[in-house]
Design brief:
alpha+beta, Cytidine Deaminase, domain 2, globular, binds tetrahydrodeoxyuridine, cytidine deaminase activity, Cytidine_deaminase-like, Cytidine deaminase
């Protein structure tokens, strides 16, 4: 089982590739899969600002592209201002909580969500079910397992 530190390290390495020239706020996400492998993503902004994608959403869609949507067990997220050493943890935005919930319910498990700052600092750990209580998801439509 990959420890939270390794997952956060992977997220931090991914954040170095964030495409965020507009907000100058880099986010990296790393997803731990059942076989111990890690899938990463970064925020991916666009000159048409509203088209921008969050790191957690990019990582989740990337896991899905390998047929691994239901195999996600934990998430590591870091974020902070580019060129700074922000130590405060960031937590996933509301939309990303909903996207992660799709994976959680398809996989039939709750997810551990580890959060940290771009520049380091402590790792704060949550359950996705605490970050998004009473979630609506595929289970409500009779699809997938039940997280
Ligand atoms: N962002 C993420 O990638 N994930 C989140 O959970 C919160 C926000 C990105 C979106 C945008 O590119 C930048 O952070 C500033 O909002």
């Amino acid at each position: 089982m990959t420890d939270p530190e390794a997952l956060i390290d992977a997220a931090r390495r991914a954040a170095a590739h964030a495409h965020a020239p507009y907000s100058r706020f880099a986010v990296g996400a790393a997803l731990l899969l059942t076989d111990g492998s890690i899938v990463t993503g970064t925020n991916f902004e666009n000159a048409s600002y509203g088209l921008s994608l969050c790191a957690e959403t990019v990582a989740t869609a990337t896991a899905n592209a390998s047929g691994r949507l239901g195999d996600i067990v934990a998430v590591g997220i870091v974020g902070g201002r580019m060129g700074e050493t922000d130590l405060d943890p960031i937590r996933p935005c509301g939309r990303c909580r909903q996207v992660l919930n799709e994976a959680a319910q398809i996989g039939g498990r709750d997810l551990a969500v580890h959060c940290s700052g771009l520049g380091g600092g402590t790792i704060e750990t949550h359950r996705l079910s605490d970050l998004l209580p009473h979630a609506f998801g595929p289970a409500d439509l009779g699809i997938g397992g039940h997280a």
